[in-house]
């Protein structure tokens, strides 16, 4: 009996540069495929079953190439390695270990768990940003209405009646006039500034310095450090628990993490391990990046030979700490934002209301 073949169509024969998997598709590929393999279904049949059910063209293309490579005799991990923009080094290494040790289903489950935890962490960080962004957006809208809609409508009345305008009103009118007259140049300047920043951030040295500077911003730096520690600890824990050696695990984690400061630190740790040094010594020498508790837990892992458990424990309690940090930040930022925004809106509101009050008082209302 011949093997089932994937259907050849023009739109599934080549991976596109912007092809990606959604979080739901990752769940199907890793978790569901792992469950099927655990139940005795072969890898190829499992992929074919998922391929037949999916409607996404991008996911179709990804599955198509994975299946075709398997049918031509390639390893699952080797096929994934051809698509680095879809499957990162962490995924490829875990799949490779699973293939070599006969624990592919376990590797798939670990990968799915990793992405689920990473997604939860991302949601926590985004939730902390939503409230301030909404408040700032509302403030900008209110100020823009007062300055560019309401004030221009009543300014001619003040001028015609020779009302002595207070400083706040004259300041706001002047600022509005400048923006109205030169808005195009300002827009161009902002766009050019953003483009220049984007280009500068492509340079490793500039990006490193910017990210390093953020580690010293009060309030925010605590959240940044804990998020990065949670991310690389989760990666290292999963890699080490799957059987990846310590040095390759640190190299994979370094390649997978986006923060340039922590990425360089992980690369240096990998090099120091190769030179015979302990991980704990490096962490202790860099207290700005790694807390004493993290250092101590890593040392315990080194002494007991269970670094995987140490890093997974670090990831777990750090994620719990992130919840507390977000609550504290929200509690602290709320009054600060209210004070700043209240002052700004109050200043603009006074600039509009004060001359109206003077006008009504002058004519006897």
UniProtKB/TrEMBL annotation:
It is found in: Cell inner membrane; Cell membrane. GO terms for cellular component: plasma membrane. InterPro entries: GspF/PilC (IPR003004), T2SS_GspF/T4SS_PilC_CS (IPR001992), T2SS_GspF_dom (IPR018076), T2SS_GspF_sf (IPR042094). Gene3D superfamilies: Type II secretion system (T2SS), domain F. Its main location: membrane. PROSITE patterns: T2SP_F (PS00874). It is a multi-pass membrane protein. It holds the Pfam family T2SSF. Keywords: Cell inner membrane, Cell membrane, Membrane, Transmembrane, Transmembrane helix, Transport. GO terms for biological process: protein secretion. The keyword Ion transport does not apply. Residues 31-152, 232-355 form the Type II secretion system protein GspF domain. The chain crosses the membrane at residues 129-151, 171-199, 336-357. Belongs to the GSP F family. This is Type II secretion system protein GspF domain-containing protein. It comes from Candidatus Uhrbacteria bacterium GW2011_GWA2_52_8d.
């Amino acid at each position: 009996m011949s093997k089932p073949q994937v259907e050849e169509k023009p739109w599934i024969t080549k991976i596109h540069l912007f092809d990606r998997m959604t979080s739901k598709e990752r769940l199907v590929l890793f978790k569901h495929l792992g469950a099927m393999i655990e139940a005795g279904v072969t890898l190829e049949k499992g992929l074919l079953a998922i391929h037949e059910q999916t409607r996404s063209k991008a996911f179709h293309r990804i599955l198509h190439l994975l299946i075709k490579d398997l049918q031509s005799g390639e390893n699952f991990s080797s096929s994934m390695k051809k698509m680095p923009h879809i499957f990162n080094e962490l995924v490829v290494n875990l799949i490779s270990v699973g293939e070599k040790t006969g624990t592919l289903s376990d590797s798939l489950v670990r990968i799915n768990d990793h992405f689920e935890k990473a997604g939860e962490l991302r949601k926590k960080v985004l939730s902390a940003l939503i409230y301030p962004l909404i408040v700032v957006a509302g403030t900008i809208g209110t100020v823009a209405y007062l300055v560019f809609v309401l004030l221009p409508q009543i300014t001619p009345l003040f001028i015609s009646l020779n009302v002595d305008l207070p400083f706040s009103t004259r300041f706001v009118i002047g600022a509005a006039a400048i923006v109205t007259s030169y808005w195009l140049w300002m827009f161009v300047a902002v766009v050019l500034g953003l483009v220049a920043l984007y280009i500068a951030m492509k340079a490793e040295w500039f990006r490193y310095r910017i990210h390093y500077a953020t580690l010293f911003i009060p309030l925010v730096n605590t959240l940044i450090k804990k998020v990065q520690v949670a991310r690389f600890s989760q990666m290292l824990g999963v890699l080490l628990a799957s059987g990846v050696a310590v040095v390759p695990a640190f190299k994979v984690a370094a390649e997978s993490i986006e923060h340039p400061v922590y990425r360089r630190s992980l690369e240096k740790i990998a090099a120091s391990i190769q030179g015979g040094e302990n991980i704990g010594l490096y962490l202790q020498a860099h207290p700005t990046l790694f807390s004493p508790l993290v250092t101590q837990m890593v040392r315990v892992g080194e002494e007991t030979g269970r670094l995987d458990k140490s890093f997974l424990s670090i990831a777990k309690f750090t994620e719990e700490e992130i919840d507390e940090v977000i609550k504290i930040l929200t509690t602290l930022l709320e009054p600060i934002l209210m004070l700043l925004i209240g002052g700004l809106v109050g200043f603009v509101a006074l600039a509009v209301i004060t001359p109206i009050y003077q006008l009504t008082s002058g004519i006897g209302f």
